[in-house]
Specification:
By secondary structure, the chain is mainly beta. Helices cover 5% and strands 48% of the residues. It is built from 1 helix and 11 strands. It has one helix at 103-109, and strands at residues 3-7, 10-13, 18-25, 33-39, 46-51, 58-60, 68-73, 78-83, 92-99, 117-118, 122-127. The strands form 2 sheets. Strands 2, 4, 5, 6, 9, 10 and 11 form a 7-stranded mixed beta sheet that branches. A 4-stranded antiparallel beta sheet has the order 1-3-8-7, with no helix packed on it. A hairpin with a 6-residue loop joins strand 4 (33-39) and strand 5. The longest helix has 7 residues, at 103-109. The protein starts with a strand and ends with a strand.
């Protein structure tokens, strides 16, 4: 069982930055692929980024490439999402997720269906 808790959301102006954190409570945290998803009002939840258990491989949705960076510190059981050059369309509730499946599958699938554990989400609002 994995429990995830996101933090770091807030209100920021367009062009600004935020860093989201996801703390995981799991003895085997280092074996999970970790991902970030987001859900804007009235829209489906969508994939944002993912990182392999070793941190060597990452995957991003096209709209955030070059602006967002996912990273993890296994000794702290924490995953981060650094978000720069934020746009109003980045406004959403951001969720952290964990998957025990092979990284090759999870990173290429970019689907919430391969993630078994989810956090409660943190709100990110970008004003224009």
């Amino acid at each position: 069982q994995v429990q995830l808790a996101e933090s770091g959301g807030g209100l920021v102006q367009a062009g600004g930055s935020l860093r989201l954190s996801c703390a995981a409570s799991a003895r085997s945290f280092s074996t999970y692929v970790m991902g970030w998803f987001r859900q804007a009002p009235g829209k489906e939840r969508e994939f944002v980024a993912a990182i392999s258990w070793a941190g060597r491989s990452t995957s991003y949705t096209d709209s955030v490439k070059g602006r967002f960076t996912i990273s993890k510190v296994s000794t702290k059981n924490t995953v981060y999402l650094q978000m720069n050059s934020l746009k109003p369309e980045d406004t959403a509730v951001y969720y952290c997720a964990a998957s025990p499946r092979p990284a090759g599958v999870v990173l290429t699938t970019q689907s919430e269906s391969v993630y078994d554990y989810w956090g409660q989400g943190t709100q990110v609002t970008v004003s224009s």
